[in-house]
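Let's practice the habit of predicting before peeking. Look at the sequence and jot down your guess about where helices and strands might fall. Then scroll down.
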Amino acid sequence: MDNIIKTNIKVIIFDLGKVVVNFDHMRICTKLSKHSTFKPDRIHDIIFNCGLETSFDNGTISPENFYSLVKKKLRLEIDKDSFQEIWTKIFTINPGIEALLSSLKNRYGLLCLSNTNSWHFEYCMQKYPALKLFDGFILSYKVGKRKPDRTIFEEAIKKAATLPDKCVYIDDVPEFVETAKKLGINGIHFRTVKKLKKELSDLNII
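Done guessing? Here is the structure:
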């Protein structure tokens, strides 16, 4: 538990990746390596450590431009549709999370706050019915900022339409939880669904 002292919670805000859905970026890199002269580790560095993914997640480049830039940098021999399929098919639903969201749905506002891009978000929305349980989304590619930038958390507070201390934010990244707490939002560092249920139970939320 991350020192939550409030129990009169009205809105629960979930991170998406590694909380609601799991993912593995190396699946992208391994598959792209079959269409490039670069090895998976180098592909990971080029896409995820050199600003390309950040620009896509921030919405500063379109999906088409993202594909074109990656294709050029990796010298890929692959069409856009095939690239998009490789880019998106990296997710699995976190076991037990849908049942937990369903149990919370009628008693609390549910929001999802995520660093993501349009292709990943649209894929998850189509693939996983659990996302339909959320009342709203705060997404980096729409806000124009990624966590831990406080701007995206401020947008979440606006979306929640309540005081920060009436909200709980759940994320697998401790740094992001700490940013939320600095804005007055209660924070839980996500580890497993089982541990999360225990922490929510301790708060009389479930």
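How did you do? Residues 63-74 form the longest helix (12 residues).
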